[in-house]
Amino acid sequence: MALPIALRTSVIPQELELVACEQLVDIIPLVAMERTAFISGAYGPLRPPAKCKVPIWMAVNLKMKKKCHVVPPDWLNVEFLQDRLTRETSEPQFSELPFRFAEVAKVLLDVASDDFQNPDKLRSLLKDIREARQAKSREGLAKLDHSELSLPNLCALEINEIRPFFIRAMGVLTKLTKDPEGQQMAY
């Protein structure tokens, strides 16, 4: 969702991708490597052709050096995303997706699209899901109530997008609901 520059005070999408790269993903190593310690933890050993869990940042680094294949997460396939798109367009609530699905999908598809079946279809479905969820966000913000806002299953990127607008809107609503003596009005 594109917001005016004055409202863009949140983390930028690239920073969210960086945070998402701490999540673990399965890889199939193409080289052997002993267990290696990093600041964020120790990973390995890598023994081809056995799967190994590593952070996305490490998988990206190994993939760019052609030293592994990335195993797509369970949710990053055409059938699952098609089901979620159907739910997004037919149900009023947000469908359940991993909290950082948009960031993880972008990073993995940018670097390891050759490890995915039908990456173009995946990108298309992710874009359609994102647009459907943005439409729901806009509808929800249009019905904003000063007392409560419940948006379960919102992902990190979506929360980050609406946070600046929401904070300002709630401030205005709070001012509007006060009586002249500055006391909160009861409903």
TrEMBL record:
InterPro entries: GINS_A, GINS_bundle-like_dom_sf, GINS_Psf2, PSF2_N. One of its GO terms (biological process) is double-strand break repair via break-induced replication. CDD domains: GINS_A_psf2 (cd11712), GINS_B_Psf2 (cd21694). GO terms for cellular component: GINS complex. Residues 13-71 form the DNA replication complex GINS protein PSF2 N-terminal domain. Residues 75-171 form the GINS subunit domain. Pfam families: PSF2_N, Sld5. It is found in: Nucleus. The keyword Mitochondrion does not apply. Keywords: Chromosome partition, DNA replication, Nucleus. Gene3D superfamilies: 1.20.58.1020, 3.40.5.50. SUPFAM superfamilies: GINS helical bundle-like, PriA/YqbF domain. Belongs to the GINS2/PSF2 family. Component of the GINS complex. This is DNA replication complex GINS protein PSF2. It comes from Steccherinum ochraceum. The gene is PSF2.
